[in-house]
Amino acid sequence: MPLARDRKAFPFLTTPFREGRGQFSPDGKWIAYTSDESRKYEVYVQSFPPSGFKRQVSAKGGDWARWRKDGGEMFYMAPDKTLMSVPIRTVSGSLEFGDPTALFKIPVIFSVSGDRAPFSYDVAPDGGRFLAMAPSDAHEAPDLTVIVNWQGESFRDKN
Question: Within 13 Å, how many C-alpha atoms sit on residue 4's CB side?
Fold first, then answer.
């Protein structure tokens, strides 16, 4: 839904394929998403609003795309749980994608229902660090302590 003018919602994609996990580029001009239109899940980028530009970014399957904050790189998960990196250049208002490069493996977390948990990783703004959920070997959840009104409390030793 555009946030200006008539604010009328419209579908971004209407195809017979399964698409999802859309991520806007930092400048809002592109959407990375996952689709099974090639008979396996791949990462695609399309202009927004749609203007005819569409490219497949992943090479041998992909899902869970993330943009670096400056839009110069994209990350996605390969089917073997390897985090992939793809350099991106903007040329004459269009995007050019480099070859995907394997970075490292990330464990994929599954939800209680058995589905993959949404976005089990995130990328630092500079693309140099990653935060990923990791499965726990613990059979019981650890204790959790919640401190309420911590800003108003003094934690100094009151001897």
Answer: 0
- ∠ Cα 6 4 94 (to 5°): 115
* Residue 100 tokens, joined: 């995907």
pLDDT digits (tens, 9 = 90+) for 7-31: 888 777 778 888 888 899 999 899 9
The tally of domains found in the chain comes to: 1
The two beta strands, 130-132 and 54-56, are unpaired
Q: Contact, 61 vs 79, CB < 8 A?
A: yes
Q: What predicted TM-score, i.e. pTM, was given to this entire model? A: 0.75
CATH of the domain at 57: 2.130.10.10
Helix, coil or strand: residue 19? strand
Look at strands 30-35 and 19-24 and give their pairing: antiparallel
Provide the token pair at 50.
Answer: 């749609």
